[in-house]
Design brief:
3-stranded antiparallel sheet; single chain; Aspartate Aminotransferase, domain 2; 7-stranded mixed sheet; alpha/beta; 37% helix; 380 residues; Aspartate Aminotransferase, domain 1
Length: 380
């Protein structure tokens, strides 16, 4: 049983939400929901008001990511895990190579392995707490990895595999826990895709992708079975990237979206851009992450899990605790005091804290969190 610990109020953060997804939603986003109670919520997503909302999201993201000429912002139903299946159905022609270094990067590789119409993927596996990018491989037409591995707090580079363009291969990067928090050059990808429940401070169930002309052309060719000898597959409409793009160009989604998610995301995108866009958001997250890593390095009982400083995430921070201090008891005591969602990723199975430091989280609250952890450990 956890001993009850009452943290002094002067030590507590103003906001105790540090989830790695779903993440903190700003009060202004909730106010936006209230403002749209009679004009947006409960109305048709095919009509002008909601389409204007989607249009604002697409325009705002194009600005935030400095989208190159010819690239397009697409969105659809189902979340980033759905996009894995869309990619298997419409973007991977025959064979993909994956960097797999955590639960989520491995799941996409597993989807490709399960697809009966694709050859077995080539998987470059990294040790837990590190990253490994795929390497140029003959016969591969698609390279895939995660910008940020949410399960471990590892951030990987986003750059095309050397020689991949000469192969005619495309690059797909999962940005779910990185987009909006870590700097990225999307021109190094053909699909940079993510869900809005992390840095974009919204709810899940939606996927967004920044698509290159090459990805758009690839999907059109695969879905029409044109110019790709031997490629013939049934693609459910829900997994059609071309249909998602056609709807996105009309500022709508294939099926009915969660309008509340759109409202909160639109508010967050405007907030990020109004404050300075990607540069501001990345600097803010880096500041918060630095507070945690510096604290852990000074601590007698806490240590950054990711040993390579260059691979440490600035959006999801993982901190190991000495075995004598059960992380579960620390997490429980923090929760009793209103500080929530600091537990490590369950499948990783480490004595660990995991802290989301997305743009909505105040750096001052991160500093307060470190004081609260110290207080709890001292008084358990």
């Amino acid at each position: 049983m956890t001993n009850s610990v009452n943290i002094p109020k002067n030590l507590l953060p103003e906001d105790g939400r540090f989830g790695s997804g779903p993440s903190k939603i700003r009060p202004e986003q909730v106010a936006a929901l209230d403002a749209g109670a009679t004009t947006l919520l409960g109305t048709s997503h095919r009509q002008t008001p909601v389409r204007q909302l989607v249009g604002s999201i697409r325009e705002g993201l194009a600005s935030f990511f400095h989208v190159p000429d010819g690239y397009e912002i697409a969105l659809g139903n189902g979340g980033a895990s759905c996009f894995w299946e869309i990619a298997c159905a419409t973007l991977i022609t025959r064979q993909a190579a994956f960097g797999a270094y955590g639960s989520f990067s491995a799941k996409f590789a597993a989807s490709a392995a399960a697809a009966p119409f694709l050859e077995d993927p080539v998987v470059f596996k990294g040790e837990t707490g590190t990253y490994r990018l795929p390497e140029r491989t003959d016969g591969v037409d698609t390279y895939c990895w995660a910008h940020n591995e949410t399960s471990t707090g590892v951030a990987a580079p986003v750059r095309r595999v050397e020689g991949s363009l000469d192969q005619g291969a495309i690059t797909l990067v999962d940005g779910t826990s990185a987009a909006g928090a870590l700097p990225v050059d999307v021109s190094q990808t053909d699909a940079y895709y993510f869900s809005p429940q992390k840095a974009f401070g919204s709810d899940g169930g939606l996927w967004v992708a920044v698509l290159s002309p090459a990805a758009i052309e690839r999907a059109a060719r695969v879905e029409s079975n044109a110019g790709l000898p031997g490629v013939c597959r049934w693609i459910p409409p829900f997994l059609s990237l071309t249909k998602a793009l056609e709807n996105s160009r009309k500022d709508q989604t294939l099926n009915t979206p969660a309008v509340a998610t759109l409202i909160m995301m639109e508010n967050q995108v405007r907030w990020l851009n109004d404050n300075g866009g990607m540069d501001w958001a990345a600097a803010r997250c880096a500041k918060s992450a630095s507070v945690l890593y510096s604290w852990a390095e000074r601590s007698d009982y806490a240590h950054p899990f990711v040993t390579d400083e260059g691979a440490r995430s600035h959006s999801v921070v993982t901190i190991d605790l000495d075995d004598a201090i059960p992380a579960s008891e620390v997490v429980a005591a923090l929760r009793e005091n209103g500080i929530v969602d600091t537990s490590g990723y369950r499948k990783l199975g480490r004595n660990q804290l995991r802290v989301g430091v997305f743009p909505s989280v105040e750096p001052a609250d991160v500093a307060a969190l470190t004081q609260c952890i110290d207080y709890v450990v001292e008084h358990l």
